[in-house]
Batch of 3 targets.
Target 1
Amino acid sequence: MAVSEDGSLVAMAPSLPDDRARDVRGAPALLYDTTSGKTVELERPQEGDAPPEFDNELLPGLKLPDLPDMPDVVMPTQYARFAFSPGNKTLIGQTGLYGQGGRFIVWDLADGRIRRILPGPSESIDAMWVHSDGRSLLTLSEEYQLDGQRTRGVVKLWDLGGEAPKQRVILRWTSPSSGITATDISPDRTRLAMVEVRADGLKATTTLTVHALPSGERLSRERVRTEDVPSGVTVATAGGPVRMYSLTPGTARTAGDLVTRIGGSWEKVDLLGAEDGEPAAVLVGLGMIALVGPGGDAGAWSRLPQPGDIPGVSASPSRSATGTRPEEQMMRLCRILGVEKLPAAAEGKVPPGAYRGPLCS
């Protein structure tokens, strides 16, 4: 699932139902317009994905020499993640099991049709963003070492203008930590922020690093001790604030900025209008979305339900509600919240062109 920067569009793909398991096109990508409440089904690719590569090993050390090659096996198209271009002209989806061995599919959002299908990377991708030029893709990948003590990461810039993506490494790192727990890119695509966490007894040492793009130059690096692991980070344009937030109660500070605390378990938080430092937010979680804000408005956050309060919905992000239409998801969220004044908290905080209508009509 992905939310456009102005909050007007949400891209999502339902889980693959049984009746589509034999259709190589897979389930369609859906585009939900928050201003009109309408859903558009984007064009589906006519071919499926190749099966993931296991290098003749299902698990490290477990050889599979007796299994025959299966060159004709095709996996139904499944989407690992989406990313909107600045200005919402195009949408890029990455396909493939676990985001590995799939393809990059580029849609023109003017008509919802596929413009290009390109081979994807061989490595898995943990996060991706469309660059400001609309034809390049920034990706972040991490690899956990077998000793469990280190992680290796890389940030790449992909040129999607040719027949096959051309990659350029912007940044590499090796970290003796639990890995990158949160990343974000500024709206103007000039800054990348990464949050690393390392256990230190009962405390966690959190490191917030900001790099310039596309050079990869380190702009800042600072550490803060917190009682809980930050769940995310948001980056404004050059000169604007960089904020970490957690999905658990508590308080902490870094670089003089209050760490935004949000109640409830939400898989993703996209902040809108971050240039002024007082953004509204689109929350994505449990298969539902909500427009609330501003970031520091504790009263607004307290209105959000805890996952356990939602009948029939698991609190585990891995068991999110899927397979329903976005309109149904929105109506479900409206029934749960049931607070007419909730959208008013975001009024005046969202940027020009962003959704300003009621959350529930």
Target 2
Amino acid sequence: MHLGGKIRVEGKYPIRTRNGELPDVTVLSASDRIFLLHLGGKIRVEGKYPIRTRNVLSMVYTPGVGRVSRAIAQDKSKVYTFTCKSNSVAVVSDGSAVLGLGNLGPEAALPVMEGKVMLFKELAGIDAWPICVSTQEPDDIVRIVQGIAPGFGGINLEDISAPRCFEIEQKLKQSLDIPVMHDDQHGTAVVLLAALTNALRVTGKQLEQVRIVVNGLGAAGTACCRMLLAAGATHLLGCDKEGIILCGEAEQLRACRTDLRACLTRDSPKGRLRDALKGADVFIGLSVGNVVTAADLDLMAPNRIVFALANPDPEVAPELGVTHAAIFATGRSDYPNQINNALAFPGIFRGALDVQASEINEAMKLAAAQAIAHVIPEGTLSEDYIIPSVFDKAVVPCVARAVAAAARASGVARRRAKVDDSPIVDDPPPRD
């Protein structure tokens, strides 16, 4: 009865799409549905087996559980078989970069982490746990995560500000033998590459030939640059508020893509964003709202691709983007082509957990991007449909299979997944 552990995390509310519209009604009273939904939090822990008899109690707890503890002490690899570790992810935040709201602290980060936990469960069947820490010192965060790591199969870093997020992730990846991923970096990069792959298919352009401008070189921006270089981009300019601070030969940038900060020239920018846009095929915004005008867009090449991902206000006003770009995408759900991290992290961790991967490497992220892109059949791609919906049930299984296969091929998988690479299902309850 201890196979796969005895507990799981469940969301209190199912996540469903909206169908249709409300009929005409007379409003008698009003309340804030968002706050009502958050009353008492959005998640809870439930045991997998009901404890109704002494027999079951003695198996799930003392004295029976002692036998399981001794077995794990003799062979630590059995912790994956007889506890919830194999299906558990810690979602860790210090609250220093909560959504687009800034440094709100760990308490204010908690409802966001609860929402993330719900997505893990709803989309991938993963039991995730919100861990909000009351320190913003990188070494302290590293020590805390190292200390709790034995209880988890993976670590998802969330809403930790740059540049500390780079140091924290790097140190944890070097010191732990379980997958560690800062989703604000890599989840964004994976989904962006998937969307760009399909946008290029629609416009008939090739990644190796297009000129790409990335505006905003924080956590997400630098990760996107690294991912694009790994995927084969050869013409890439990176801009920040100082101007063009990332440029050079593709091979030079590719050689230092593990830490692109070494290639940045903040003290001697090579021009302004407007200069970078001249003749560019692709604009990727990960900065602040309304920094690109119609005149700026007109400087770009024909059939331009514009991804304006700043929230809540994109770098390019949506009404401008849809008229001045062949393909326009945002991070918002009220426009077509939403670049949403939830397309990536559930499947990436599902695939990594299923093969007990020791890390999430570049090959696994590239595989995830291609899997997301190819969820959409060639014949249904269009300017307004380059990325699948978060609610598309094909996404997570496709991503998980691709990630698991890449983990095996790159030598970081410690077990074979099931034949269909599907997650392990719950075991039947014990007999009384």
Target 3
Amino acid sequence: MRHWLLLWLACVLLLALGGCAVTPKPDVVAGVADPYESMNRKVFAFNDALDKAIFKPVATGYKTVMPEPVRTCVSNIFGNIADIYTAVNNALQGKFKEAGSDLCRVAINSTLGLLGCFDVATELGFEKHNEDFGQTLATWGVGAGPYLVLPFFGPSTLRDSTNVVIDWATYPVNQITPIYVRNSVRALRLIDTRALLLEASNLADDAALDKYQFIRDAYLQRRRYLIYDGDPPEEPLPKYEDETVPPASQAEPISTPVAQPATVKLSVAPGDRLLNEPSLRATSLNVTP
């Protein structure tokens, strides 16, 4: 009971601090280098083969057999745990109002929502956010680093790979005993996550000529969207070094010479033919980008 009171107190305090919080603007470069593309493609091929052989069939069966209310309950429970990490990262980013809202979500859903099975907080007006330590580092000005494909975990960057380490070290499920129950919960989380991505993966399979590039670009765009809280700035247009054109007032007037009629006298002997130069026709080539 004492822990719940402390959670509610933190929720109220952070909401109160939200009005005076200043969030630093992330300095993020839109383009992320892929210097390890050759290695990344090999890891991607391994992950893709493993997914098609094991994870995707299991997730498809899970979605087919398990009733939707049960699947929603499972997703909500894991989402309730994720809200704890979101609250911490919102606080680290100086977004205290959002952090307080996240803690309120955890308190409400963990009690009224039966450990998060039901998302009561959303119905009460507490918006769900999506923050992680990779976004926090971006807010602090840490660059993304090279693009990476991690074995079993998929697309990432050097900066975002910190999420894997933190999740593995601090996830509450790791404290569950006995071990077989802990591993069962981990497997359920993996299957639930994969089931939620079935439609997206099917789209990538059907639409992408180069699946690796498709997923890489989609991942980087998604991360940029999250870092800027859904409102990323427009990417700057490329700069071209054009020749300097002087202002119209300084430009020298262009004089167009007027052709004067010329009289040409030709002596043509009887039976001779005049040979005219062939006329040249300009051909225009339209290239549609």
